[in-house]
């Protein structure tokens, strides 16, 4: 009598896919966060007119903090700016009798806001339309480059995860078909006793459900071990440790639920394609 | 209980039966005997509708099977105990697991112990079915029938698998008399003490 190893194979395949998809999602999510943070680290400089007083400049800086696209605003005092320049150029402070620099602001935009080129143009117009502002310097090319990279990376992430899921669906469908073929003889014998197809389907589903259950359980255990080892012994990017942990856990949980749905739908599909009314 | 009305069965051009008519009453013990490939198994398959007749009508419990709905057929099959050459057993289960599964699915667990005792399967309960001998498998198949208390029993060539012929005849008679089961079985050689159903040679009637 040949031993039925299809359940073991289904469990193993599901486990591999659960781990691979969760790990990939975690890595992709973290890299995406890194790119997003790059975008919010690009400063926008706003220079006030020479006749603008410090109070006026500070008032305007405070008003910008409530802008939906602004993450943070740093006020740069003109005397401090001059000191910085002089120290960088190694020049004596007494060289200037009058400070030629204006007050300025260093503004960091929210990543999602900065992702849209029209938002960049719109905030530039907002700055320029103000009578206190003399000049606005926005590195539009850099923003566009980061946006393009992020977009391409996101598309790549979706395609990669999509390919994994598609592969999982195809392999599971084939394995379910093989499982049914293996069980067909037993099911046909039960039909001869008058056992309803619904009951036979439930038996088939129970058989498959156990594979999902064990695969999920093993994925949780192995995933926890992998994360423990990573955090304690590897930890390549400590800054993103929480991102990696949270995204791995969340995507793992999501894929466990998702794989359950896939398995149930595929089981139903395979059963009604393969099962015959004898 | 079983009625054949002008039933013919052909496999392409080969005639198995032609216009046969018979009626088996409730509580009868009937044998269908005949030589190799004369259609004995086909007859049983027509009764449980594993095959359809080429023409004519087969009625079971008064219901014609020709246009029966699948759900209704399943209902009728719950009243039939059928044993063909593979015994209808699930080989990778143990005797106990198999009997438990079948009686649980059909919600007839109350007769399980009695069936195990009747066919002396106590010592085999934990044995995997694929490890049983042919006669043990046959006893298990009969135990299933007794546990399910099916009023109609169809057995295909039981003497090919059960070595002690007289013991099997006695078992069948007990099932028939004590449990009021209608039994139809096929055999190569006829048995004197049991009613005989003669349906063969029907293909040659018109030619003669």
Automatic annotation (TrEMBL), chain A:
Coiled coil: none annotated. Residues 43-136 form the FtsX extracellular domain. One of its GO terms (biological process) is cell division. Keywords: Cell cycle, Cell division, Cell membrane, Membrane, Transmembrane, Transmembrane helix. InterPro entries: ABC3_permease_C, FtsX, FtsX_ECD. The chain crosses the membrane at residues 12-31, 156-180, 200-233, 253-273. The keyword Nucleotidyltransferase does not apply. It is a multi-pass membrane protein. Residues 159-272 form the ABC3 transporter permease C-terminal domain. It is found in: Cell membrane. The keyword Lipid metabolism does not apply. One of its GO terms (cellular component) is cell division site. Belongs to the ABC-4 integral membrane protein family. FtsX subfamily. This is Cell division protein FtsX. It comes from Desulfurella multipotens.
């Amino acid at each position: 009598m040949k031993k039925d190893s299809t359940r073991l194979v289904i469990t193993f395949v599901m486990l591999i896919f659960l781990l691979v998809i969760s790990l990939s999602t975690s890595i992709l999510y973290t890299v995406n966060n890194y790119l997003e943070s790059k975008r919010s680290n690009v400063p926008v400089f706003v220079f006030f007119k020479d006749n603008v007083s410090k109070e006026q400049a500070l008032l305007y800086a405070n008003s910008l903090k409530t802008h939906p696209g602004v993450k943070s605003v740093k006020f740069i005092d003109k005397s401090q700016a001059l000191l910085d320049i002089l120290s960088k150029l190694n020049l004596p402070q007494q060289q200037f009798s009058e400070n030629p620099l204006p007050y300025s602001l260093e503004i960091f935009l929210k990543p999602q806001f900065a992702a849209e080129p029209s938002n960049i143009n719109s905030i530039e117009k907002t700055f320029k339309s103000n009578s206190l502002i003399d000049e606005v310097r926005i590195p539009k090319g850099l923003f566009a480059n980061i946006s393009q990279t992020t977009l391409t990376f996101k598309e790549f992430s979706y395609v990669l995860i999509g390919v994994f899921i598609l592969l999982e669906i195809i392999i599971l469908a084939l394995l379910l078909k093989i499982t049914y073929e293996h069980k067909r003889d037993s099911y046909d014998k039960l039909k001869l006793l008058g056992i309803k197809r619904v009951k036979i389907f439930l038996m088939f589903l129970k058989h498959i459900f156990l594979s999902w259950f064990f695969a999920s359980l093993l994925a949780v255990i192995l995933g926890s071990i992998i994360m423990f080892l990573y955090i304690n012994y590897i930890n390549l990017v400590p800054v993103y440790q929480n991102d990696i942990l949270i995204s791995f856990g969340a995507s793992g949980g999501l894929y466990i639920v998702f794989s359950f749905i896939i398995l149930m739908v595929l089981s139903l599909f395979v059963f009604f394609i393969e099962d015959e009314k004898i | 209980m079983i009625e054949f009305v002008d039933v013919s069965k052909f496999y392409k051009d080969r005639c198995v039966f032609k216009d046969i008519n018979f009626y088996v009453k409730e509580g009868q013990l009937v044998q269908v005997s005949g030589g190799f490939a004369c259609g004995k198994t086909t007859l049983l398959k027509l009764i449980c509708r594993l095959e359809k007749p080429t023409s004519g009508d087969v009625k079971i419990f008064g219901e014609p099977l020709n246009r029966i709905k699948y759900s209704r057929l399943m209902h009728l099959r719950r009243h039939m105990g059928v044993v063909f050459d593979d015994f209808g057993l699930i080989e990778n289960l143990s005797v106990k697991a198999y009997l438990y599964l079948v009686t649980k699915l059909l919600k007839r667990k109350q007769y399980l112990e009695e069936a195990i005792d009747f066919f002396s399967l106590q010592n085999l309960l934990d044995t995997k079915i694929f490890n049983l001998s042919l006669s043990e498998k046959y006893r298990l198949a009969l135990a299933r029938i007794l546990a399910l208390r099916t009023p109609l029993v169809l057995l295909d060539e039981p003497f090919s698998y059960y070595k002690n012929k007289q013991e099997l005849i006695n078992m069948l008679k007990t099932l028939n008399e004590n449990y009021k089961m209608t039994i139809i079985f096929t055999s190569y050689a006829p048995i004197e003490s049991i009613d005989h159903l003669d349906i063969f040679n029907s293909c040659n009637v018109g030619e003669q």
